[in-house]
Write a structure and sequence with these properties.
There is one protein chain. The chain is an alpha+beta fold. The protein is 28% helix and 35% strand. It is built from 5 helices and 9 strands. A hairpin with a 4-residue loop joins strand 4 and strand 5.
């Protein structure tokens, strides 16, 4: 399969659908490829889209999924109490997070300002501060 896709790519017959992590979690979506082909995707409950998922492979073309890079908002709480409060807050909002030692990294699945607005009480009070991406 990889060889066929590689060959189609060289012939300009490979189409890509660029999706965010949030979009790949959806079971039904309507999107367009980078070449304008309209696609309706409906997945079974146990199926998921990943980077490189092949949606169509024909003699004359292929359509595959390409994941967009996730951007992360990095927040440092000032102490243990602020860390617990921030973690509880992020969990209640069902935000995808990861940790880099004392830094809480929040996956941006929408406009960054939406997240900053929700975090305003933590940031404005000085209980947490934003740090630059590493």
């Amino acid at each position: 399969m990889a060889e066929r896709i590689h060959s189609l790519s060289h012939d300009g017959k490979l189409e890509e659908i660029h999706l965010s992590a949030a979009d790949t979690a959806r079971k039904r979506l309507r999107v367009k490829t980078d070449k304008g082909t309209d696609c309706a995707i409906a997945l079974a409950r146990d199926a998921c889209l990943e980077n490189g998922s092949v949606l169509l492979l024909e003699d004359g073309r292929a359509i595959i999924i390409r994941m967009l890079e996730t951007k992360w908002l990095r927040i440092v709480p000032v102490n243990d109490a602020a860390a617990l409060e921030l973690g509880y807050f992020a969990g209640n909002l069902h935000w995808r997070v990861r940790f880099d030692e004392a830094v809480l990294e929040i996956a941006l699945d929408g406009p960054e300002q939406n997240y900053l607005d929700r975090l305003a009480n933590h940031l404005d009070s000085g209980r947490a501060r934003r740090v630059d991406n590493a």
